[in-house]
Design brief:
CATH topology of the largest domain: Rossmann fold
Strand order of the largest sheet: 3-2-1-4-5-6-7
Helix content: 40-55%
Number of helices: 17
CATH architecture of the largest domain: 3-Layer(aba) Sandwich
Structural class: alpha/beta
Largest sheet: 7 strands, parallel
Strand content: 5-15%
Number of domains: 2
Length: about 425
Amino acid sequence: MSALKILHICTSPNGGAGRAAFRLHESLLKNGVESYFMSLYDESSLTKNEKLNFIALNNGPSNILFRIVNKIQRIFRVSSAKRHIKLVSEYNGLHSKINAEITSLPFSNFRIDEYPIVKKVDIVNLHWVSKVLDYPTFFKNINKPVVWTLHDLNPVKGIFHYEDDEKINETLTGDLNKQFVKIKIDSLKSFRNTLQIVTPSHWLQDKASKSPILGKFQSEVIPYCIDFNHFPVHPKMEYRKELNIPDDGKILLLFVSQMKISNRKGLDLVLEAAKFLPEHTISIVLVGTSAQFSIPGVTVTSTGLITNDAILAKYYSSADAVILPSREDNLPNVILESFSCGTPIIGFPIGGIKEHVLNKHTGILAENISSLSLANAIKEFIETKNSYESSKIREYAEIHFSERIQVEAYMKLYNRLKSSRNLQVTDKT
């Protein structure tokens, strides 16, 4: 399809952002693109086929000479974190007091720009890069066009990944956070090539465009993709029998989180909303936690973490609806996976969720972020559940989240950046 060589850099191939980034990498490979995936963590969780063109930073590159030189450089190099030792020290002193899902510093011990694979590729595509990207050195030294696919708000914030966390900790970290914002702004000023921002949702694009960090760069929206063969539409009752889910006439709601279930994910709102519903109306299956919950008149089952797509798809297909109560979110993979299985979603009108959960078509949006509003949305779903057609929901997914659409959009972008770079090189010569 193309002689382009693309390097994706993401902290992990797992978790929401990691899975989305790795799906893009795999889709490009399927379409004949020479794509590579660089991660902080090793490939032990991947299959043999998935390890193709996978580079683990912790293992270092295969080039022995580079390893030796890089090790010597690390001994004598003054890292970016050490140059900002006072800020890092202040952050470390506050870290245990910060009430947030996650925080990240714009520093790393890795010098990605020095890796041989970076010199080989045409385009570097950044993804979720906490602990991997050292802002001051990367943007100063990288001499390739960069695409940055945002998966949360950290690239446009200081240390936080979401706005609610930033607001909650404003009194504690306000001044410190602003200084890390400045470090990111200054780092990007030193970048002398082309940087293109990609966001999976219009919500995240709007946040990026208004950011003092990334606002000056061009951006476009390219939604995530999914392999529909991994998440097929299947009769509910067959999978319920296989999964030992009783056919008791209750409405089965599925909650899925493939990462740490934080306050942002809204599980507390699901459990509270269930108390507003008549007893013996619903049952809830929680995927992603092994914790046990007790609600009068409601059967709550916790499966623990499920990373196997085939098993996960069975739970999606067995549910009457997937409940997605995130308080703040970009474009959760849960949307793609649920719609691919033909299962509607009940959620809040936020982020990328409100862009794809269409009332009476692909699901129902609650009026506001509250347990009572969520309970009312569940009641409305129960009253209208027979109006949802799995084939129509699947069709929506095929129109918006196909691998073909995503690959075409990224290839158009990659080729444009490569052409622009070639013109710049020609002009200089």
